[in-house]
Design brief:
The protein is α/β, with parallel strands linked by helices. 37% of the residues lie in helices and 12% in strands. Strands 1, 2, 3, 4, 5, 6, 7 and 8 form an eight-stranded mixed β-sheet that branches.
Length: 309
């Protein structure tokens, strides 16, 4: 694991591949809203597209690692619905932590932000998920935030579950995860949609933003929880906006997930239903890029992609 600088590239160049354009996907963070990533994975499966590289932050690290391990979108959907589709199943999995001391799950009593995300994820993640990055079928980068170094860090080798837990360690809920002697927290804090780490690795870079934004209107006063997570959303969207001004990915999609909260993990079906339109958006965007590249012999820049029918 090490810190990496963003790589910018002019994507109006000859495709890196000699056949069909290669694709890399950045799965963004956003808590439960990240269930929308399942549509992206299913659509790529349907089109017969296997990414050559994946990056992810927070829930995007989980979804990206699942895809990189060889799980299909349908398998990820089925597992997610079976695991989080009912409150009883969630409680049953949490109950499996009972042989350990409660102190292994909660640090210092029931205080805000002290749940052990690494232990909780061991009860939630598919057993088929490998233990290390080296066992993944697709090269994957997981983004975490080094708390004391005040910067993002990239995990691409070694302990996979530890990296996923660190990237998903939302400060308001979970205590930091120690990796290589460093205290790591939610990767989405520094890089909510890490498409910049994929430049130069594929012809077509896809970024998926599931951060969303505060929903409601001025007639409804936000709760303390809504303010806490809503402020985080606003900061993340500010980061994303600045990154897009510097260098956009070829395809950048925002599924319709703003009405859901970061902790709406029991609303799997509702989130999937609300975000289903992203499937057609991805298909149309890919078709536009491929059509353009066939006609002109080069891949378009992102602004040109946005103008295509």
């Amino acid at each position: 694991m090490g810190n990496e600088q963003s790589i910018t590239a002019d994507r109006r160049t000859e495709p890196a591949s000699t056949g069909d354009p290669t694709v890399a996907v950045a799965f963004g963070g956003g808590g439960a809203r990240g269930f929308a990533h399942i549509h992206i994975i299913e659509t790529l499966n349907e089109l017969g597209i296997r990414p050559v590289a994946i990056s992810g932050a927070s829930i995007g690290a989980i979804m990206g690692a699942a895809m990189a391990s060889g799980m299909s979108g349908a398998e990820i959907r089925e597992y997610t619905r079976a695991t989080l589709g009912s409150r009883s199943e969630v409680l049953s999995r949490i109950w499996r932590l009972r042989p350990t001391r409660m102190g292994d799950v909660i640090s210092g009593g029931f205080r805000l932000g002290q749940f052990n995300v690494e232990r909780i994820l061991t009860t939630m993640l598919p057993e088929s998920l490998p233990a290390t990055f080296e066992e993944l079928d697709i090269p994957t980068q997981i983004i975490v935030t080094d708390f004391y170094a005040q910067q993002e860090a990239v995990c691409s080798s070694g302990d996979l579950i530890n990296a996923i837990a660190a990237s998903a360690a939302i400060p308001a809920l979970f205590r930091p995860v120690v990796r290589d002697g460093r205290y790591m927290i939610d990767g989405g804090i520094f890089n909510p949609v890490p498409f910049d780490h994929l430049y130069g690795l594929a012809d077509i870079i896809i970024g998926i933003d599931v951060v969303g934004g505060p929903s409601g209107d001025d007639g409804e006063s936000p709760t303390t929880t809504d303010l806490m997570f809503g402020a985080s959303q606003l900061m993340m969207q500010s980061i994303i906006g600045m990154k897009l001004k510097i260098n956009r990915p070829n395809i950048f999609l925002r599924p319709n997930v703003s009405e859901f909260r970061v902790l709406d993990f029991l609303k799997v079906d509702e989130i999937l239903t609300a975000s289903v339109d992203v499937r057609d958006e991805l298909k149309h965007a890919l078709d536009a890029i491929i059509t353009y590249s066939i006609k002109n012999g080069v891949l378009p820049k992102a602004p040109d992609v946005l103008k295509l029918p």
